[in-house]
Every structure is written in C-alpha cells, then in structure tokens.
Amino acid sequence: MSVFSTGMNHRSFLWQITALCFVLGLLMSAAWQTATQIKRAGMTPQRPGFFYGSDFQVAAKKAAEYEKEINKLNGEIAHLIKGKDAESEKNKKLAEYRLFAGLTQVSGPGVQVTLIDSNRHNSFGNDPLNLSNLIHDADIVMVVNELKAAGAEALSVNGERIIGISSIRCVGPVVHVNNVPAAPPYIIQAVGDQNALFGGINLPNGVLDRLRQFDATMVKVEKRDKMLLPAFAGGTQMHFAHEAKPNEESNSKESNSKESNSKESNSKETNSKETRTKDSDTRDSNSKGSSKETGKENSTKAADNREARDNTSNETTTRDESSGTSNGSEGDSQETHKGADNQ
Amino acid sequence: MKALVPLVGLVGGVLTGFALFNGFHWQVPPDFAPYLSVAALAGIDTVFGGVRAGIEGRFQNDIFASGFILNSILAVALTLCGNQIGVDLGLVAVLVLGARIFNNLSLMRRFYLNKIALARKRIQEDNAAAFANIPGSTGPNG
C-alpha cells in the first residue's frame, strides 16, 4: 500500500483511475439494469416487444378510462330506458334486445365453473404446446360452448361477458377473452337452468373429463343461486355489417300483420324486432336449448326466403323439427304457426 | 487509504447509474445489452492495467485514456461484427480482455509480494546487522 503514497505522478494516476472507475460503474450499472430487465421480461434481447412496456401501461390506463366511460354511458342509456318513456313499446323492446345482446348487467341463478392450472408436473415433458397441466384457451372455449348448448342465457369468463362476437384465444402465456387478458383461475359463469347446465357440463366423457383425469383439482363446478354478470364492455359499433334489405317474399309474412298500422320505413325494423321478440319470449318459457332456438329462427328465416306459396309447408317442417328436438318448444312452434296463419 | 479513492469512484458510478436508470427510467435498448457488457469488460481491463502501470510507476495518462476508449470501441465493434456475420466475435473480446485482467492482477500480486519479500529481507538484514547477537528479535517485525 505504501506505493500509493510515494512517487511523483501518483496523484494524477489515482484521480484518473477514479474517473475511469466512475465511468465503469455507470457502464456496469447500465449493463446490470438491462440484464435484469431482460430477465424480468423473460425475453431474449432480440424481442422488440420488450420496448413497449411503458407504452402498454399508458394504453392500459387509457383503456380503463374508456371502459369507465362506456360503463357510464351504458348506465345513462339504462337510466333513459327506465325513465319517463319506460312504458312505451319501443323502449321495452329496446331493453329486451339489450338484454339479449348482453349489453346490460345480468343477474340470476346458474352455474360457475372454475378452471385452475394444476400444480402437478406435466408427464409429457415441457413442450409448451402440449402442457396438459395448464388451462388452455381451447378448454375455456369448450366449456363455454357446452354451457351454451346446455341452455345458458348469459355467460361471462373472468368478468368478460361472452356475446355473439366474443373471442377466446391463446396469446402467448395468457388467454385473451374479448381481447382482454385473463389469468387463471378462469371463472366461467353461466346464467340459466342450474340443473341443465350442471348436467351438461358434467356429462360423462364431456369437456371437463380430460382435465379431471389429469388433476381433479383443476375443475370446480358449483351451482350458484345468484350471480351478477357484467355487461359487455367492448365496442358495439358496426363498421362493415349493415342490415340487409329484405326482398318482398321474405318480408311478406310479418309485414302483412303490421303494414296496416305502420309506416313503410318502419316495417323493416319492426319485422326483425318481431322475430327477435318472439325468440326471447320463447326463451323465457323454454329454458333449454338457446342454440336450438337460434337454429329454429334460422330455419324460419330460411323458410321465409322461399316462395310464399311454399311457406305453409316449410313452416310445418320447422314446427316438426322443433318439436322433435326439444320438449319445451311448443310455445315457439305455436308462435311460428301463428306467423304462418297471419299470411 | 488513498487506494480506496478509485473504489469510491466505482461505487459512486454504480450508484449514480442506478439512480439514473431507476429514477429517470432511462433504458438501454436490450439489443445493445451485449455491447454494453463488453464495453464494461474493456473498462475493467483498463482499470486493472492502469493500476498495474501505476504501482509499477509507469503510468501515462494518454496511454490510459486512449487504451480505454480504443479497447471499448474495438470490443463493441467486434461484437457488432460478430452479430452481423453470425460468429460470436464478442467472445474474442471477452477472452482477450479477461486474460489481460487476470494477467494484470497476477502482475500486481507479484509486485506486492516482491515488495513485501524485499522489505522483509531488508528488515532481516538490518536487524541482522544491528542486533547480530539477538536473533530472536527479527521475527514479528515483518
């Protein structure tokens, strides 16, 4: 040590080393930070997505704000619907459609399915595409589909309402529901006939069997007497799809009943509403088989599209089909029949 | 105790770096992480070389500064070049600089060991000359 305190140029030498050490410290801390960040992000340095972490946070904040605004506006809409014109026919129907479309909060009895990743190790190695100890998007899709088939009237996955255009897909390590990331445990709530839903989801050789065989704790199915499902929070604006102009034949059935007391411009709207209302009416009386209902509606429409003179026979086949497929659909077939009578 | 000044500088640099990177959310693009590491290694090499030259009394600040800058540039350039042609030339820099660090450290070690040995020998000789009759008094003074 004594060497540092002797000699002529040691002072400048020490200070220069110190200055360089300072620079070196900066470099090392920079390298350290970068390495830590890479480790934390779990990515190799080549991944460009790594850059955008802060951008994502900003975007998420904005998204949350927009969601709040959407909720607020939805609440206003609900308030307006419930307001002074609550009794008017139009508003009633609007409320029905909103309920059907999933734009309102929904509460009711049903079944809650909880899917959790297993702690057990995978027996097939660590192939990321074949990890059977994890819940995959396909599992959720299958459960949702099965619940729909069992007559669920409203569905949500981790607080995201499932509607007609909902998507459930795998995006890297997470599952996106309606393009919103969801993490396990995945809680799938379905409002509907508890027994039908419970039975449907627990069918032998059903959708949950693979998971249960691997680890029984991955799946939990429980009946709930009251559940609160959120409204669909995504955008509802249509940019490309618009209502098709119905041709005369397809129009004729319901417009005959309405044309006498409604304007020409209105008739198109009322027609579609009419069909939907019927559908939701029967939906109430018939808790089973929402998908069957939709199928019937489709077949009815298909029948409408044909020549008017064929209509009666087509209606008859529709009715036969529907009564064949489900027991509780008599109300619906009567409705359809009435429609045919109106002609 | 003056030997601790560079160490203080190093710690100060690290702390400043952490403050900057954490406090102001500075970020080095992760693509540059390997270059940064190699540059840091060149810095370590230069510091060791400088200390060695200093304790040998052959320290020249122009050699020191230019060595640091050029070594860093060459190391980074090698890594960059290696990235382009698909050969990890960064390893060359790591290997050479690492070897030089060890070499410098060993030279410093030898220098001090020599110094200590010389000092001990001198003391022994002095003692031997001064107290030729009392050989037991030489031991603990080294």
Keywords:
heterodimer; A: 343 residues; alpha+beta; 11 helices; flat; disordered N terminus; B: 142 residues; mainly alpha; 77% helix
The structural domain count of chain B equals 1
Q: What ranges of chain A have pLDDT less than 50 throughout 5 or more consecutive residues?
A: 1-9, 44-49, 254-343
What spatial order of strands do you see in the largest sheet of chain A? 3-2-7-1-8
Which overall shape of chain A is indicated by the principal axes computed on the Cα atoms? flat
Note the beta-strand portion of chain B.
under 5%
Characterize the structure shown.
- The complex is a heterodimer of chains A (343) and B (142).
- Chain A is of the alpha+beta class.
- Chain A has helices spanning 10-41, 53-82, 89-101, 137-149, 194-201, 209-214, 248-258, 264-285, 290-305, 311-325, 330-342; strands at 106-115, 154-157, 160-162, 168-171, 174-177, 180-182, 186-191, 219-229.
- Chain A contains eleven helices and eight strands.
- Chain A has a five-stranded antiparallel beta sheet, covered by helices on one side.
- Chain A is flat, with a radius of gyration of 30 Å.
- Chain A starts with 9 loop residues before the first helix and ends with a helix.
- Mean pLDDT of chain A is 70; it is low at 1-9, 44-49 and 254-343.
- Chain B contains four helices and no strands.
- In chain B, helix 2 packs parallel to helix 4 and helix 3 (61-85) runs antiparallel to helix 4.
- Chain B is elongated and about 75 Å long.
- Classes of the chains: A alpha+beta (343), B mainly alpha (142).
- The A-B interface holds A 1, 3-5, 7, 9-10, 12-31, 33-35, 37-38, 43, 45-47, 50-51, 54 and B 2-3, 5-18, 20-22, 25, 27-34, 36-37, 39-40, 43-44, 46-47, 50-51, 53-55, 57, 59, 61, 64-65, 68, 115.
